[in-house]
Every structure is written in structure tokens, then in C-alpha cells.
């Protein structure tokens, strides 16, 4: 939550300006001026208050689409980029990205406006999942599908399926990581100056009154989050003996409802302190009079303490309690690893991620997410330009800053599901693609993700764009280590997806006699068309190692793309049944 600069303001506004104006029936806009009653001791908007506004706007958007009462089911990671001061305006936009059967994803964009300088900047971006409440007869409400119109809406709609996939395996990722040897071996021994975790423990009880409830008489989800932030801040202050700044809230799920009259017991403790940040765990339980406690929610929040220059200060170490404290200490280390993976792989724009991200079973889910979502984003671009066409096989190009991408597209008389099965078997590609000399499966990750080593002709010593000439020139070949991620349609109108990107494996370093090439984003989308046919599109964000294979086609000097796709079509037709 560093100070704002004009450079970052211009960068962040740029993306919004590119999006065309379009009416979205689910969009809700909320503007709030920050008053002293909304602020903390630093005259900055309290994060708890911001979460209440965000949840309120998102709920209104979800109910506008569902036409029935909705409740917050979960919230993805939230990273707070900037603070908001008293007197400034918070502008919140929420709209439904995609509706599944009974749940929907709502995207929330929070921007700040300075009324005196006319500056705008982004504060945070979040994704919330809402579910409809059952009818009076106990039946679930089936949601109508969202129809994306703009390019941005199409991207969000497509990638929402991948985000949902990550949410569903989130708990499994933690469990798998905790079983990893390096997490089990984390040294929790600290020096005598360490602060006992017990000193940071906070317990607080809140009585749920009518002003804390929503229009369904349930405790407002945003209010619960605000109370949780409050106790977490106190716990963080006890460790640092300073005023901490909330940087991020991990993905969390509401486990059950709470009503007016409930007592909410809020517990917080510092789980682990790293060099410049600390993780605080918060648990919310509800009880009514003498009834048993019900676990409502748990969340993990990351705090920093900033010095006068706005830089994170070094924090004291924490001394965990035996048994349960040790468990929380290790789990916090695992979650830090997951946060770094997300920040490194998912949160960045595609161009900022290095080509070959190191493959690690603990970051498998996020690499797979990045792989598929990057291809979906590339496919959703609206500025593709037709470069050439031959017998209904079309070659398109897309120029983005310093990046050139190409798309080859044609329709084949093969059912989409069968084309998907055949093309997903990458080991068979050398039989129809002359650019693949060899393709071997080196690791079966799971049913949807595979790692291959691909050998292709080098073009560095041959004629540009001529693999045949390259084969005759000193016999130097290129190899690629590729992660292949395949996805079946999540809903009607979704394509089958086969996404490819480079990864690096310690077991397969670059070898003598091969030029190690890299692929940033490539793969197929397969869309079912009428008469049981398929529209097959191949995409590639051309890296320097890939561009020579297609450069003469783009320039119109050859049509090797046509012959390759014809060969692909014949391969699919031969194996149609």
C-alpha cells in the first residue's frame, strides 16, 4: 500500500480506456466518499470498511442477475495495492463474469479518485463467488447463463472456468504441500528475542444486531470480514508493537450462515513472522445463547509494518506454541510458498512471466491455470488480422507491442470431442507435423497435464522459414520442454482447449547438439460447429525460436501453414472413428 505515482496511474488507467463502453445488465457501480468515521488512526480508509462496500456491491450484482436472494460463498485472494485517504472517493464496479448452475463469479474492481487533482488509480481487484438461496419449497435456483459481449467480458467469462477449477482444489494444494518434506523440515527454533505466539492471541465477541444483517436477516458477509480484519490487526500490532498495514487476504470460504441475535466469537493469532511480513490466522465462530459453536469462517491475512520511507520493516521472530502452534507455523510457511507461486505465475501479466518457469509439483495447479488462461486470453483478442488464406485455411496475425502472435484456423469434418482426443495426444504429432521431428512424454502429471520433450528442425543455419533446409545444415536441432494442459468444455459454447507453454526441468537441462527453444503461449481451441464438424484454431505467441517457421507464410512468400493444416486434417479424418 505504497504511495501513489503518476506513472502507475497512467498505466492502470490505460487498460480501462481500451475497453469499449457497453451496457452490462449485471453491472453495479458504487461511489463512496471516505469520511473520518470510515478511517483508521492514519486517516486512511479502514480495510474492513472497504470489504463491506465491496461485498455489498458484489451481492447487488449477483442478485440482479439471479433475480433472487444471494449469499457470499467465497472470496479469492485480495491484494491491496494502495491506500485511500479521508476525503477521497472510492469507486467500485461489480459485475457477474460467469454463471454456473447455482453459483456465479462476480468480478470486483476498486478504484480511488482524488477530487482535487482529478487523478484515478486502482486499489484492488477481487473475485467473489455467490450462491443463490433455496426457494421457500427448498428447491435450488438454476441460474441463466451470462452472454459476454465485449472482448474483456469474453476473456473474464472464459478464464472464470479456470479460476473455479483452482478454487475447488485449493484445500488439496495445502494438504499436498504440507506432506512435502521441505515443509516438514522447516526449522521453528528461534532465538531468545523471539516473541511468544501466545502474546499475540486475540479473542473478541460481537453481538449480531439488525444493522449488521443484510436484507435476508443473515449476518452481512462484509461485516464478518470487517470484524475479522479488526482482531487480526490487533494481533499483528502485538507482535510488531507498531501500526501494521494489511497487504493481502488469502482465498477464504464462508462455511455457514449467521443470523441476528448470534454471538460471533473472533479469534486471531500470529501464525508465523517472516523477515518483512507476518501471517495472522483468524477464525470466526457463531453461537446462540447456550447452543454449540458453529465454525463460520477462517481467513489468513498478511501484514507489513512500514517505516517512514514506506519500506517494510524487519519484524521480530515468532516462537510458536507446541503442537497446534507448530502446525500453524508450518502451514503458514506452506501458504507463503503458495502466495509466491500465485504472484509469480498468476498475478503477473503474461509478458512479465519468464518463458520457462521452473516446474515444481507444488506449483503445478498455478502453472496449469496460467497455461490455459493465457491461451484463452489470446484467443479472445478481437484485433486478429487475416494475413492470407488458401482453400479455407486462414492465417491471422496479431501485433501487441513487441509481440507477434499468429493463428491458423480451418473447419474439419470431425466431431469436436474426437478431434480433441487426437490432438491432445501430442506424441502422435510428428506423424502429421513436419515441424515435429520427435515428441516424447517425459512426465504424466495428472489426467489433464503432461510434460513433453519436443525436437524440431533448427532454422538458424538454413533458409529462413525452411525446416528442410535447416535439416541439411549441420544437423543442429532445437528442443523444447513443454507443459501440455487440456480442458474439456465447462459449459455450452465453450471450446475444447489444449494449451502449451515452456517449463524447465532439472532432469532435462539443455544438452549439447540442441538449441533449447522456448514457447510462451501456444495451443489449440476446438469448437463444435453444425453438422458434427469442428472449427480448429491453432495459436502461437511467436518467440524468437518459433517465428522463423512461420515468417515466410506471414510475409506471403510461402504456404507451408496450409500444407501442415492439410496434413492435420487428413490425420484427423483417418482416425475419425
Describe the structure.
It is built from 12 helices and 25 strands. With 577 residues, it is α+β, with helices and mostly antiparallel strands. Helix content is 28%, strand content 31%. The protein folds into 3 domains: 159 residues, Thiol Ester Dehydrase, Chain A (Roll); 161 residues, Hotdog Thioesterase (Thiol Ester Dehydrase, Chain A), CATH 3.10.129; 206 residues, Alpha-D-Glucose-1,6-Bisphosphate, Chain A, domain 4 (2-Layer Sandwich). It is globular. The N and C termini lie far apart (58 Å).
Largest sheet: 11 strands, mixed
Integer average pLDDT = 85
Structural category: alpha+beta
Note the overall shape.
globular
Annotate the secondary structure layout.
Layout: H1 6-18, E1 28-33, H2 47-66, E2 70-75, E3 78-79, E4 89-99, E5 103-114, E6 119-132, H3 151-168, H4 170-178, H5 181-184, E7 195-196, E8 202-207, H6 221-240, E9 245-249, E10 252-253, E11 263-273, E12 278-287, E13 294-304, E14 318-319, H7 324-346, E15 357-358, H8 364-379, E16 385-390, E17 393-400, E18 403-412, H9 416-424, E19 438-444, E20 449-457, H10 467-471, E21 477-487, E22 496-504, E23 514-516, E24 522-528, E25 534-541, H11 547-554, H12 560-574
Parallel strand pairs: 7-14, 15-22, 21-23
Antiparallel strand pairs: 1-4, 2-6, 2-10, 3-9, 4-5, 5-6, 8-11, 9-13, 11-12, 12-13, 16-17, 17-18, 18-25, 19-20, 20-21, 21-22, 22-24, 24-25
